[in-house]
Amino acid sequence: MFIFAVNAQEDSLEVVVPSSQEADIRCIVPPAGFEVSTAFNGYLSMPNSAAIIMMQINNANYLKIAEGMTEEWCEANNLKLLSSSSLESDHGVKGRVFKLSFILEGDEWIRYMVFAGDLQQTLWLNITYPYKLEELIEGEVLKSLQTINLNPGSNEN
């Protein structure tokens, strides 16, 4: 799902390989009831069996990454694509939002895969919750996506 970029400088070529690291969890304001997780980088709502896992991908933009979200990729990962849309947060961060579903041990789950960023970095969010709680959780998740800020320690995006 990652794309390699090539930089041409003078007479040499440099291959830039995407890399990942833990995202700053301050990049979003989580929904009410979500706490910082001690098991993974992100937030967890134990009473609702809901999680937000956060990763930062360097040297890859969200548009290229989103191209990999094909029907074939979904099928290979036992996911059903329910919808996809563009995003622009209140901080001007643009991205793509994919709403998917999957079955685990007979129960239906919802997963939002969100890729948002700029030319150099992409914030990758995996937000998962039980389908049976959709009417309570989905609106709060969508509000949280509006808070995406790539530079939470500054007043800029």
Helix content range of the residues, please?
A: 10-25%
What is the chains' assembly state? single chain
Provide the low-confidence segments as ranges. Answer: 1-6
- Broad structural category: alpha+beta
Helix segment tally: 3
> Given the C-alpha coordinates, what overall shape results?
globular
| Major sheet attributes | 8 strands, antiparallel
Percent of residues in beta strands: 35-45%
N-to-C order of helices and strands: EEEEEEHHEEEEH
Distance between the termini: 26 Å
Number of strands: 10
Gyration radius, rounded: 16 Å
- Give the overall pLDDT as a whole number: 90
Structure description:
There is one protein chain. Helices cover 15% and strands 45% of the residues. By secondary structure, the protein is of the alpha+beta class. Strand 7 (80-88) and strand 8 form a beta hairpin. The radius of gyration is 16 Å and the shape is globular. The model is unreliable at 1-6 (pLDDT under 50).
SSE topology sketch:
Blueprint: E1 5-9, E2 12-16, E3 19-22, E4 35-36, E5 42-45, E6 50-58, H1 62-67, H2 71-76, E7 80-88, E8 94-104, E9 107-117, E10 121-130, H3 134-145
Antiparallel strand pairs: 1-2, 3-6, 4-5, 5-6, 6-10, 7-8, 8-9, 9-10
